[in-house]
Amino acid sequence: MKLSAIATALTLVASATAANAATSIEFWHSIGGDVVDTICADFNAQSDNQVECIFQGDYEVAMQKAVASVRSKNHPALMQFYEVGTMDVMMSNIFKPLQASYSDVNWNAYISGAKGYYQSADNQLMSQPWNSSTIVLYSNKEVLAKAGINKAPETYEELVTAMKTLQESGHECPYTTDGHPWRVMEQVAARHGVEIASNSNGYDGLDAEYKVNEGLIVDHMNNLHHWNKQGLVKLDPQTRAGKYTSAFASGECAMMEASLSAYNASSTSLGDSLQISMAPVYQGIDRLNTFVGGGSLWMLDGHSTAEEAVAKEFLNYLRHPEVQKSLTAMTGYLPVTQEAYQHILDTTDSDDATFASVHAGYASLNQPSNSASRGIRLGFYTQFRSIFREETQKAFAGDISMQQALDNAKRRGDQLLRRFERTYKNIS
């Protein structure tokens, strides 16, 4: 369904604004292409008010621009921030808490994996989940079938068996990854209910400490290291394509765990051979939700009542199931409310390739949750990701043990956390 048609159908959805005359606001975002421009143009066509949607570069660049704009008191009314920047935004106090700003929205309609990441410690949504993704298992059905494997692995034990079967049948790359912590550590910890850091991954206080050098995280990283040495798992530089998503899409590698953002390229290349399923868990584990990836929308403080009303009107529009469906169709991002997902089920065929990635992703985010799968609320987390990857790459290269790599990551990560704690310890 085209957004222009949706806009016509949703004329009555827009909430009333505080001013009689048209009010204009700015919305800064980090989604390239014309997707957001299309959404904004259709909103503007059905509203008395206007939202100017301005692309600000990737998430890191946009965050820097947002900080500068707040300091100069020239900041937008709405801003998209990426999920790992949530803690930094919350501690800055530059925003208006979303849930506290509304009295007529059922926030419980949001799926658990999307909602928890953007909530405060007392379960209040600070921002509106929007462009949401998660991790899934991609499989090449045709390649697996030739090796006698008739279903995608549901456990890591089944994955090992499948990788060995593929290798024995002559396949040179059973599985591929780039080793990014979002894929090989964070998402694994989430769906197994294991803390990355103490204090419920930082939700319960700034004095959290990393726990990446113990328990299941160590076991899984050692497993990846062992599988890599056996030739069952290949990292980016070890593939002919040079990038894990390209190696899978080209048919070089048979399986990968990756974000839903890899779906369009994989589907275009592999067609009916592509299979999407929930990422595996270890046997005996009760599966929990995976973490959400992508970004959320923040109402920034310091604007007039009329401007805030327009911001809320636009957020209301984006929550509508038909608008969520269109965003999914254009980008592959997931619907983030129960109603929107049901709308997709009710209005599309089950074999519609446009939405084939949605079902596994939605199921993965909508599993039961605990304090460890809720999200990550740790300061300077993007820097920690770089540290984790740097240290574990040393282990994959054979320079140090994986345990030493994780010990180093914990030590260096805790130093970041203490610096963040000193910076914000007097801010409630």
TrEMBL record:
Protein name: sn-glycerol-3-phosphate-binding periplasmic protein UgpB
Assembly with partners or alone: The complex is composed of two ATP-binding proteins (UgpC), two transmembrane proteins (UgpA and UgpE) and a solute-binding protein (UgpB).
Keywords: Signal, Transport
Alphabetized InterPro entries for the sequence: Bact_solute-bd_prot1, SBP
Signal peptide range: 1-21
Recorded family membership: Belongs to the bacterial solute-binding protein 1 family.
Compartments reported by the entry: Periplasm
Pfam families: SBP_bac_8
Protein origin, superkingdom: Bacteria
Spans traversing the lipid bilayer: none
Gene3D superfamilies, per the entry: Periplasmic binding protein-like II
